Please model this.
Amino acid sequence: MSLENKVAIITGASRGIGFAVAKRFVMDGAKVVLADVDDEAGQAAADDLKSLGDIMYIHCNVAERLDVRNMVAETLNAYGDIDILVNNAGIVVGADFLELEEDDFDRVLSINLKGAFLCSQAVARHMVEKVEGGGEPGTIINMSSVNSVIAIPNQIPYCVSKGGMSQLTKTTALALAKYGIRVNAIGPGSIMTEMLASVNSDPAARNRILSRTPMLRIGEPSEIAGVAAFLASSDASYVTGQTIMADGGRMPLNYTVEVPADQ
Ligand SMILES: NC(=O)c1ccc[n+]([C@@H]2O[C@H](COP(=O)([O-])OP(=O)(O)OC[C@H]3O[C@@H](n4cnc5c(N)ncnc54)[C@H](O)[C@@H]3O)[C@@H](O)[C@H]2O)c1
Model:
């Protein structure tokens, strides 16, 4: 198994993409920490996966430095190491540009972007210490978005946070390259999770998404987990500073595609 004996922390892993990554990693042999603010769902997720391998839930608001420090300490206490960090926790707040509240702008940026910085820095300190002691370098994966490049007019802080995630990925990759620590990002297109739940009950919204998705379907969380498994594995040993778009063909598309009536 490609992640045998590795220890992975995945933030925002109580549900959605983070949960799918956790499931894939534990199936690939990793010991996995699910970190989230939704303790009930997080504990239930850990219980759900525990028959597959070593897995535990830790409460962590990624925007809070002390929570992050505790998450790292608790992981080291339980599993003795951290090889992989997936910065996946993220929220959206939709608002018209002229109405957007300052608090909402700050909240999205502090979870989606500052949270990834805090977790990366805390985990990288451990990873660097390990390399300097003769150990194996670890790897960091940031959950970005196609919205790191293209934009939605009523998702201002979200798009700004993901644009920042792209630069955070590059700067962290450059800073840690000399230790052999790789840092990459995944840019999902539209993936069927609670973040996209409104689309299920809104045919016009679904049609809008499909018209911008040449593969004419919404992605599954497991399809993002597959990319994370590749980036975490030694198969990606010479890949760093990249954002891999997993978007059904959205990024290369100008204009729209025709959506057949039966889609
Ligand atoms: N679903 C999509 O279409 C899509 C597309 C592109 C990018 N993404 C990105 O993928 C990631 C996961 O998205 P998802 O669709 O699974 O979302 P989701 O809403 O289903 O899950 C997000 C998880 O993050 C947790 N979370 C929220 N705030 C947190 C905090 N402060 N600290 C720790 N955990 C916190 C939530 O409790 C939840 O478990 C996000 O970064 C999102 O931006 C999703």
Remarks:
- Strands lie at 7-11, 31-36, 55-59, 84-87, 139-143, 182-188, 243-246.
- The domain at 7-246 is CATH 3.40.50.720 (Rossmann fold).
- The mean pLDDT is 97.
- The pocket of nicotinamide-adenine-dinucleotide is lined by residues 11-12, 14-18, 36-38, 60-63, 88-91, 111, 143, 145, 188, 190-191, 193-196 (CB under 6 Å).
